[in-house]
Amino acid sequence: MTAPPVVDAALRRDLRFVMVDGVMWSLMVGVGEFCFALFVLTVTGSEVASGLAVSVPVLIGAVLQLASPAGVRALGSQKRWVVLCVFMQTLAFLPMVAVALAYPTRPEAGEVRAWLVPVLFSIAALYWAGGMAAGGAWFTWMSSTVPAAMRTRYFATRTRWAQLGALTSFVLAGVYLQGVAQGGRNVAAFAVLFAAAFVFRAISTGLLIGTRESTPVPANVRVVPIGEWLRRLVSRTGGLQLVQCVLAMQFTSMIAGPYFTAFIKRELHGSDAEWMMLNGTTLLFKILSTPLWGWVATRYGARLVFLCAGIGIAPLAVLWVVHQNFVYLLVVQMASGLAWGAWELAVVLLTFETLREHERTSILTTQNLFNAVAMVVGSALGGFMLYVAGNSFQAYMIVYTVSSIARLAVIPLIWHLYRRRPPPEPAAAVRG
Question: Which residue range forms the structural domain that includes residue 359?
């Protein structure tokens, strides 16, 4: 039996800071990142720009974040690099506030402010570059901060609190846009949301500064060349099976994912309150299901959670084709919360389990790039299908059906990773 780790006062402080950092990050996501596609739709009047807003800037940011391994080496610390990148992400909200104040009303019916699209995409690229550049180094930093024996329970709890924060801030943002901001018609109202996001991320930055770093750079740290990364990606024995699954699911989900906002608003004529309820239901059921998935991961391993998530995610898009009754769609979003909650927790846990520490930052940096490529290609394919079919109701039905069929092809990859699971650890090894 493996004894649980000794948690001294300094470690408790670090764990508390990391926990609250997750909540502050989620509050930022709820009032900032989640509202960006709606902001682009509102200020530009373009459905396609709204859909591409969640993919194209991510690709630009992913290219910029390739400097992560070099940045960590130059600063000699994972923590310093993470703090620098998170601070850059924080600053990205200031020009968003400026744009919202400069264009306080939405365009007239049929008008498209195309000239704003590159401006907004550039701002979003700065946001994503900061977040993704910090991600790989953050995982490596946390592997030396959070003891292995308590990671499952700790990160399940952190994920649950983060999801609660995202739901709370997202609901408040939706209520604000629907009520105070006249149903989102007043573009300047987004300035308040982005200013709040700036404050939340600034607090998060301060908490990261206050967290200790016991191992600035792991021993034998190496940069995995992109050629080797690709060879290992396509190999069943290259250690990147998790990356295979994540990239494949990202591509297939993005065929439909970016266009749900436009579908709800333009085709179903949903109000901001209904849009908020549908998205909020997903977040709520992520929160409610996290303790369950954490228990499953503790008892049976994160790979089983990952398998359940993949099976659950596959049919979600096509379920929107079956019926468009609002209550029915709420039930679909409940299922979505269950499945995506399992996916997100499993990916975090399996990242620690399957990627070697001395390669983790480099592998995740390259993964971020290809993840962004998958997002752009997937959303572009969905956008192309919508365009060819005339942005009609039937076009959305085609996009959702194709997305679900494509997701089914990811399940064999997940099954292969599940079959390679290590033997379960004794129960005492995962107590925190």
Answer: 9-430
> Whose CA is closest to 381, among 408, 414, 405, 412?
405
Distance of CA 105 to the CA centre of its chain: 30
Average pLDDT, the chain: 84
Domain assignment present for 2:
no
pLDDT tens per residue across span 277-330: 888 888 889 888 888 998 999 888 899 999 999 999 999 998 988 887 888 999
Handedness of CA 143, 149, 150, 152 (dihedral sign): positive
189-209 and 93-102 helices cross at what angle (nearest 10)? Answer: 170
Max CA pair span of the chain: 68
d(Cα 133, Cα 100) in Å, to the nearest integer?
Answer: 27
What is the amino acid identity at position 66?
L
Q: Give a yes or no: residue 377 inside a domain.
A: yes
List the end-to-end C-alpha distance of the chain, in Å, as a whole number.
Answer: 14
Within a domain: 179 = yes
Map tokens 């228990």 to a residue: 295
Average pLDDT over residues 136-141: 87
Highest mean pLDDT among 101-105, 225-229, 407-411: 407-411
At 189, give phi and psi (nearest 5°): -60, -30
Residue 188 structure tokens: 């300047």
Q: How far is CA 331 from the centre of its chain?
A: 22
CA triplet 28, 96, 108: central angle to 5 degrees?
Answer: 120
Report yes or no: 340 and 286 within 8 Å, Cβ to Cβ: yes
The total of other beta-carbon atoms located within 10 Å of residue 324's CB is 16
Q: How confident is the model at residue 82 (pLDDT cuts 50, 70, 90)?
A: very high
Q: Which of 333, 223, 335 is nearest to 270 (CA)?
A: 333
The reported pLDDT for the residue numbered 422 is 57
Amino acid, single-letter form, for residue 203: I
Question: Residue 331: which CATH number?
Answer: 1.20.1250.20
Contacts of 160 (CB under 8 A, 6+ apart): 287, 290, 291, 294
Check residue 283 and give its pLDDT: 82
Task: Give domain status of residue 1, yes or no.
Answer: no
pTM over 0.85: no
Nearest C-alpha neighbor of 432 from the set 140, 153, 208: 153
Question: Smallest Cα–Cα separation from 257: which of 193, 331, 333, 197?
Answer: 333
| CA-to-CA dists, residue 82 to 118, 175, 200, angstroms | 27, 33, 16
Three-state SS at 183: coil
- Model confidence at 46: pLDDT above 80: no
